[in-house]
Amino acid sequence: MKQREVIRLNEALIVQSNAEIVRGFGWFVHFSCIFFLFIAVISLLKVDTNANRDYLQIVFGVSGAVFVISYLRIAIKKFNYDDLKLAYINLFFILFAWLLLMLGLIAVGDEFWPYVDFIAFTLLISLLSCFYPNSRFFYSGLLFICLSMVTMHLYIRNEDILMFLGSYLIVSFVLNRCRVSFAQHFYDGLASQHENTLLLSKLENLAMRDGLTGISNRKYLDDRLNIEIKRAKRCGKPLSMILLDVDHFKRYNQSVGHQAGDLCLIDIANLIQGCIQRPDDMLARYGGEEFAILLPDTGLESAVRIAKKVQTKLKEAKILHPDSPLSGWTTLSQGITVWEQGMSANAFLKHVEKGLCDAKLAGRNCYVVYS
Fold it and tell me: If residue 214 lies in a helix (H) or strand (E), which one and from where to where?
């Protein structure tokens, strides 16, 4: 893979991975808002004194403001998928709001300890489900998390704090290693997908190009011609075409050889390509020593101007033709036609071919407009 393709691949991975992180943040915000309402209602119903209720209302009000602001930023699409830094800042404030809420519940009384425990593990599971790259990986790890939760609760009941801390550290280490491993599989999958896209793009590009000159081939010209005819019908704009043929090219090959003839065709293709400036204009190899210029949104006057420009540039280039009966230099015969309403693609090509044939009958090294 070339260096610029590697750079494009890395950029695509960064953009897509950042988008996944920001999308995970969006899911976590939605979950936090719903879960917060559930915890707030249950807690306020359980508290038994007005002082504690007022205290919890303040805590819930501050935390709820953070959740609502984060939710609104997503709802109105305040930031894009590539704004990763802003997503991390929002995530930090949400987790800080959850910490404030849990500390507020602990300060009210010991009866809220189960609530804090439940909130902590629920947040852990929700973070995994929102930010893990693949749901199958998450559900496979969820069983281990649930078993670990049961084990830690058993240790807490036995008041074995050291065993609880050890189990929690082991779980954290395993989760982190799983995250690294899963992320690696995720990025490898993205890399393979993007590399396959690049290869398909290359194959499509090769299928549309002429192997010798590098310009468009006949197949792509036919496909593009059908598209431009439909566009001309729909928009009512003109469509012109020029068919060019290298005069006495068989004599050229016989006199200097086929390899020199190939180089001559390449030079002529580059010369013609330099005569068309607009992005929509297309040069294609029509077959053998014939070239075609497709000119969307171009009338007859402009097409003739391009044909004259090609003649002038070719005369100035002075490409040697040792066996030409016309002159010592390579020349072109050109047929020009303009598409008319109701004309099919085949009829359009026949018109431009007849124009080229008339140019050859007129003595070559000229252009003829056929209509």
Answer: none
